[in-house]
Amino acid sequence: MAITKNKKLRLILGDQLNINHTWFKTVDEQVTYVLMEIQTETDYAIHHIQKVLGIFASMQEFAKTLQQQKHNVIYIKLNDKHNLQSFDKNCAVLISKNNYTHFEYQLPDEYRVDKHLKQYTKSLKISVNAVDTEHFYSTRNELGNLFEGKKTYLMETFYRYMRKKHNVLIIDGDKPLHGKWNFDEDNRQKLPKEHKPTAPYLFTNNVTEIETELKKVIIKTIGTVDSKKFLWPINREQSIQLLDFFVENCLPLFGTFQDAMAPNEWSLYHSRLSFSMNIKLLSPQEVVNRAIAEYTKRPNEIEYNQLEGFVRQIIGWREYMRGIYWHKMPEYATLNYFDHTAKLPQWFWTGKTKMNCLKNAITQSLQFAYAHHIQRLMITGNFALLAGVNPDEVDNWYLGIYIDAFEWVEITNTRGMSQFADGGIVGSKPYVSSATYINKMSSYCTGCYYNKAKKTGDKACPFNSLYWNFYDKHESKLSKNPRIGMMYNVWRKMAPNAKAELLEQADYYLKHINEL
Ligand code: FAD
Ligand code: DLZ
Ligand code: SF4
């Protein structure tokens, strides 16, 4: 039997659901697309049940769309008899069975999968091509090239470069609209007591069939789900609806309450678009353009600081984190600047702690697979850093629990921004705080078992003593940092017995961390 030339197999990963990719512009009967639900991907971390369901449901929807457009699609479900549970093994069988003469894949976002596919394709006897995902504003190496030879990697420098390069909120060729690059000083207020935030826009997708399939195999997951009313978007139409809802209802207060936290309010004015963007149902360009269009349409209702703050998160932070990832991996995953070794407290997996801020942030993470940025940074991340938890443990928790967690954006935020384990590549100082900051930005302290104002003694808020203990322990590594020097002046001036009491209190809390 004659072998047809140019028979192509194209692999689509679970976070590559970009229907606008060049691949799909023409229908070619010589081309077959393959998507696969596999245990090597479900098991590299203990994932939230909603993350696995969300990715599988979106992959299935994407395969359906491709089929409707008349593309050839092979979809391997988790429990298919012939599923060999890894990208390379499944592809190898398909290639030999169907006599493909070409194999193509889109560049993975994660180093681990990139390495795996590079190794696998080296062994292939047919031609191989890896193409861009056509998703990001910047290339993998763009940030590395921009900062070539520089000691620091300032996000603000990168952000300005991106704004100019992509002509976003720019006038006169290279000047920032409204005279300033960054309007953060107008943002970040606490939620007023009487303020009732807009309720989040939730979907009611039925994903019970996928849940039943998941239960048949031994996949350890965390968190809860109502699989009859799965609340996250699982296709492009729903992602666009969520984007519309965000710009119409939340953007006007996005910046103002970006850092605010309140009990039982799990997303406030945040967009919750990270999942759709990270699996590429939405492109960052269309999100940014939609927000700018809304601002242009309603100049009297949407202030510029709200828009600029949102655009910065996407053009700035999101692209910056990806650039740092590709510039610094694989070493980045081994960095542990403070040599932290402690284990994550058990209640990170249950939310059962008397600390109201942590109880809220963890419980909502288990319930929704989501926490907003300041909860991740200044509640859970802050505590893990003050408690000296090993960054590997911290990474595994963040990589599993959030629906939007993929290593390229998780590790740079967790190990970098939150844990300062990179010694200052992403952030210029560690993000730690006592109860003062948490109380300033939230109303958690009001309902807490602990007393925010007490540093030592019965019911003293653990953040207070752990905060000073952290600075004391890492004085040699931090005291020369110009952004922290002032804290050391305060610490040095403190009476010796007050210092001793604080350190004793911290020591007690660290020894009884699982009981906090
Ligand atoms: P919004 O507040 O509405 O922001 C809009 C968009 O901006 C987000 O969707 C996201 O794409 C982008 N963005 C905002 N901040 C960042 C940032 N620091 N880095 C990258 N993109 C950003 N984000 C992830 O997408 N995946 C992760 O696994 C992840 N892990 C994090 C871990 C820690 C410890 C911290 C501190 C932050 C982490 N972030 C992560 C960044 C940020 O918290 C989330 O992007 C954001 O909370 C997602 O919710 P949202 O879509 O409602 O964001
Ligand atoms: C996160 C995830 C999970 C849980 N399962 C799958 C899967 O079964 N099949 C798949 O193709 N992708 C999955 N993903 C997303 C991948 O982990 C992601 O595509 C790679 O890590 C590249 O970033
Ligand atoms: Fe958190 Fe301390 Fe406030 Fe309690 S008192 S909510 S532990 S900061």
List keywords for this structure.
Rossmann fold, 20 helices, binds flavin-adenine dinucleotide, binds iron/sulfur cluster, two-stranded antiparallel ribbon, 7 strands, about 5% strand, Serine Threonine Protein Phosphatase 5, Tetratricopeptide repeat, about 525 residues, binds ligand DLZ, DNA Cyclobutane Dipyrimidine Photolyase, subunit A, domain 3, 5-stranded parallel beta sheet
Question: How would you characterize the overall build of this protein?
Answer:
There is one protein chain. The protein has three domains: 2-131, Rossmann fold (3-Layer(aba) Sandwich); 142-328, Serine Threonine Protein Phosphatase 5, Tetratricopeptide repeat (Alpha Horseshoe); 346-515, Orthogonal Bundle (DNA Cyclobutane Dipyrimidine Photolyase, subunit A, domain 3). It is 45% helix and 6% strand. The longest helix has 25 residues, at 304-328. The chain has 516 residues and is mainly alpha-helical. The chain has helices at 39-42, 49-68, 87-98, 111-122, 142-146, 155-165, 208-216, 236-250, 274-278, 284-297, 304-328, 356-368, 373-386, 391-401, 407-418, 435-441, 462-473, 475-478, 485-493, 496-511; strands spanning 8-11, 31-36, 72-76, 102-106, 127-131, 170-171, 175-176. β6 and β7 form a beta hairpin. α6 (155-165) packs across α11, α10 (284-297) packs antiparallel against α11 and α17 (462-473) crosses α20 (496-511). It is built from 20 helices and seven strands. 43% of the residues are buried. The strands form two sheets. A five-stranded parallel β-sheet has the order 3-2-1-4-5, with helices on both faces. Residues 13-15, 36-38, 41-42, 47, 52, 55, 108-110, 113, 406 line the site of ligand DLZ.
